[in-house]
Amino acid sequence: MNREEKIEQIKPFFDFWDKLDKKSQDFLCDSMYEITYEAGENIHNGDVMCVGVLFVQSGMLRVYIMSEEGKEVTLYRIEEGETCVLSASCVLEEITFDVHVDSETATKAWVLSSGAFADLIERNIYFENYQNKLKAQRLSDVMWTMQQILFYSFDKRLAIFLYDEFIKNGPVITYSHLEIAKYLGSAREVVSRMLKYFEKENILTVSRKEIIITDKKALFEHTK
Question: pTM surpassing 0.70?
Fold first, then answer.
């Protein structure tokens, strides 16, 4: 890939690209590199050196926290065209808790090193505003997750998860019961019991490898 092709690929992640001076554009371009992750690979945690900011080209990342007992709560997912700033939490003074990042599927991303990210924030107002915007967006995602855990019943949380998956990917859901439990901060047995309840209500069918939504309207009613 030549330099012009690289710039064309990274530009869409920065809506202020044309406002940067040539020196900053060159520094940004030179500081970014491509990386690929296999499905299920751990990318960032409290014990791993700060990765940097990840700009997802394809695939999906899962950002979550983990208790001392190993219980996971998914905060949000990063999809194609989105940016994972918490993978550079070592340069974000406001982040005082350990965040884990896994590749939920095979993922290809651009990486901006933590050092370059910190340097750009310090000397460029556009990047300072950019990182504040990213943090605000992710705080909103985290607060939504916490609101669900604290105030919603589990059947409603599961229904919201399944309905969102239906809207994004269609009626066939291939997440395992354990993966859903990790996303919702619950136990696999609880997920399995609730799926069986939904199945008895003729909302979906459950097999070993997939969940098929058969009544979208009824599922939506459980999200209210």
Answer: yes
CA–chain centroid gap for 137, Å, is 12
pLDDT by residue (tens digit) across 81-136?
999 887 776 666 655 567 889 999 999 999 998 889 888 888 889 988 988 888 88
Q: What DSSP line would sit under the chain, residue for residue?
A: --HHHHHHHHGGG-TTGGGS-HHHHHHHHHHEEEEEE-TT-EEE-TTSPP--EEEEEES-EEEEEE-TT--EEEEEEE-TT-EE-GGGGGG-TT--S--EEEESS-EEEEEE-HHHHHHHHHH-HHHHHHHHHHHHHHHHHHHHHHHHHHHS-HHHHHHHHHHHHHHHH-SEE---HHHHHHHHTS-HHHHHHHHHHHHHTTSEEE-SS-EEE--HHHHHHTT-
Cβ contact 204:162 at 8 Å:
yes
Q: Which residues of the chain have pLDDT under 70?
A: 46-49, 89-97
> Beta-carbon neighbour count of residue 164 at 10 Å?
11
Dihedral Cα 180, 183, 185, 187, nearest 10 deg: 20
What is the model's pLDDT at position 49?
65
